[in-house]
Records
---
Amino acid sequence: LCVPAHRPTLLPRQTRACYSRKTLVLDLDETLVHSSLEAVERADFSFPVTFNGAEHIVFVRQRPHLHDFMVSCQL
C-alpha cells in the first residue's frame, strides 16, 4: 500500500539463477557518509537541495576507506 504499483522495484526479481547471488543493502547517512546542512571542514562534496521552497547546500564527508570498501563489494 505504501509503494505505488507503477514504481519499479529496487531489488532484482528472485529467480533460480539468483539463488547464489547476494544483495547488499547499506544505510547511507551516518554509515557510509556524514552529511550536514552546516558547512563542515574538508567536505568531500556538496550539492544543492530544495526543501520547503528554500534551497540548502548539503555538505558531505565520506567515511575513511569508503572507496576501497565499495570496490571490494563488487567481487
---
Amino acid sequence: MKKIIVVFSSVLLMSLYACSGNSNANATTQEVIQQEEIIVDVTVNQFKDLIATEGTVLDVRTPEEWAEGTIPNAEKMNYHDDDFATQIERLDKTKPVFVYCKRGGRSASAAEILKENGFTKVYNLDGGITAWTEARSEEHTS
C-alpha cells in the first residue's frame, strides 16, 4: 500500500509540473538569458527582446509556410530537409539561436538537434509564429 501511495504521489507531482505551462512565462528577459540550460522555451515578448541581441533567428518551417510570412531577418532552414543537420553547421555555435516554427513542436525538435551538435544556447519560441502573429495583432488592436 505504501508503494502505491508513493507512486501515486510521484505521478501527481509530475502531472502538476507538466501542466504548469511555461515556467519562464513570468521571467524577465535578463533572467531568461542567465539560465544555465542550453535550450530555453520563451514567450513571444521574451523572444522579441532576445532577437534584438546578437544571434541567429532560425525559422524551421517549410517553404510553403515561409510564404505566409516570417519573423524579420530569420534564416530559413526547413526542418524536414534530409540535410537539416548539415545546414545548421554553417551557423555560429557560440552565438544564441532563436528558433521557431508554426506552433513550437518542430522548433523544439530542432533545438534538440542544435544542442546535440554543440550549440551553446538555443531559445525556442513557445507557440511558434502562431503565437507571435496573435501577439502582434493584439498590439495593433489595443
---
Amino acid sequence: MSDIYTMPGHLIRRLNQISASIFQDRMAAMGLDLTSVQYAALSTLAKHPGIDQATLAGMIAYDRVTIGGVVDRLVAKGLVARITSARDRRARELALTDSGAALLERVHPEVLAIQPAILSGLSDDERALFMTLAARAAEAGNDRSRAPLRHRTDN
C-alpha cells in the first residue's frame, strides 16, 4: 500500500486547501466576500476588458459552466458588467465596473502579500524553484485538464 503523503496529487490537494484557507482568511479580515476564482476573474478582466465568458473561462482555466456562476455573482455584486458586443449584438462582453476596479486595486496588494505564506516552509530560493517546477508541470499536463488554460492569442 502506497503512502498518500508521498503522492503528488495528495500534496497538491493539501496545498490547494492551504492556499484557499489563507486567501479566505485574508478576505474575511478585510471584511470582503471574495473567492480566489472571483479574484482571478477580476484580475483577468482588468487586463483584458471586453472578453466573453468562454474566453475568461479559458484564461483562468475554469470550466465554462462554473464560470457562469462566478460571473453571475460578480455581476450581482456590481463588480462586473455584461455589455452587448458592438461586433455581434448576440454576444456579451465582460468588463469591470468602477466598483470592481476599485475593489481589485484594494485587494491586489493583499493577495500579493499572502503568497509567501502559502509556501511558508520554503526559503525564497526554494519558493522560486517550486514555482518554476509547478509551472512546468502544469503546462505539461494542461491538455489533460477538464478546464485547460487557454492563452488569449489576440493580445
